Automatic annotation (TrEMBL):
The name this protein goes by in its record: S-adenosyl-L-methionine-dependent methyltransferase
InterPro entries in the record: Euk-Arch_PrmC-MTase, PrmC-related, SAM-dependent_MTases_sf, Small_mtfrase_dom
Species in which this protein is naturally found: Gigaspora rosea
Residue ranges annotated for the Methyltransferase small domain, each copy included: 48-142
Family: Belongs to the eukaryotic/archaeal PrmC-related family.
Length: 218
């Protein structure tokens, strides 16, 4: 396994405002590393986009896995502290990426000259009240997913359909409470995305899954 990105520039004070990498983050890294030959050879990405990049650990790791620096790495996060740290993490690990503070993909489209080939989202997925989804507290906003933990996820699904290139792939982290079967059915029914569970892990009592969606037979 490639070493995880160096995060020693991030202080405990930073983690009061930015989601600290946890089991879900590391499951994401595993799923990307397991798929790297497929991603390099079959997807051959021009643009990768991570929504909700937090510390930037996932996108920086993806940049390291892809290795040649020719893929444009873009990140968004609704939290300005997160986008600032995402850029620092990339620089600390000699990766170039751009990070934009915005809600999901708003404000991003004018910057895209090509559809997205690899889309990653480790969303707020914990079941909470709907009010918590729009909390002013950035840490709460990192995990609060509203009803069934699906409120942010459900806003992202149609955007994934709009953004992905024809051979693009979308990795989405979910937990059992989010009803992964229903998400997959919806992606197939509404957008004809094929799907599989790319990785899964029990973290405490929570079963986490990385769902992988794509359009073509790959
Ligand atoms: C579970 S954390 C994941 C962070 C990081 N990707 C990781 O794996 O460690 C979810 C991230 O999504 C961000 N987020 C929440 N709602 C968002 C939205 N509407 N648009 C963009 N980012 C959002 C949070 O600020 C947080 O950084």
């Amino acid at each position: 396994m490639l070493p995880t990105p160096n995060l020693d520039h991030i202080t405990s004070n930073d983690y009061e405002n930015v989601y600290e990498p946890a089991e879900d983050t590391f499951l994401f890294l595993d799923a990307l590393e397991n798929d790297i030959e497929f991603l390099k050879n079959d997807v051959n990405p021009c643009i990768c986009l991570e929504i909700g990049s937090g510390t930037g650990c996932v996108s920086t790791f993806l940049g390291q896995l892809l290795g040649d620096g020719s893929t444009l790495l873009l990140c968004t996060d609704i939290n300005p502290f997160a986008t600032a740290i995402t850029v620092k993490t990339a620089i600390r690990n000699s990766i170039h990426l751009d990070a934009i503070t915005t809600n999901l993909t708003s404000g991003l489209l004018p910057r895209l000259y090509h559809k997205v080939d690899i889309l990653c989202f480790n969303p707020p997925y914990v079941v909470t009240s709907s009010e918590d989804v729009n909390s002013k507290n950035f840490i709460e906003r990192a995990w609060a997913g509203g009803i069934y933990g699906r409120e942010v996820i459900d806003r992202m699904l149609p955007l994934a359909n709009d953004l992905l290139s024809s051979n693009g792939v979308f990795y989405l982290l979910v937990i059992s409470d989010n009803k992964p079967d229903e998400i997959c059915e919806r992606m197939w029914r509404d957008y004809k995305f094929q799907f599989k569970i790319s990785a899964s892990r029990l973290a405490g009592r929570e079963k986490q899954f990385i769902l992988k969606f794509w359009r073509n037979q790959t």
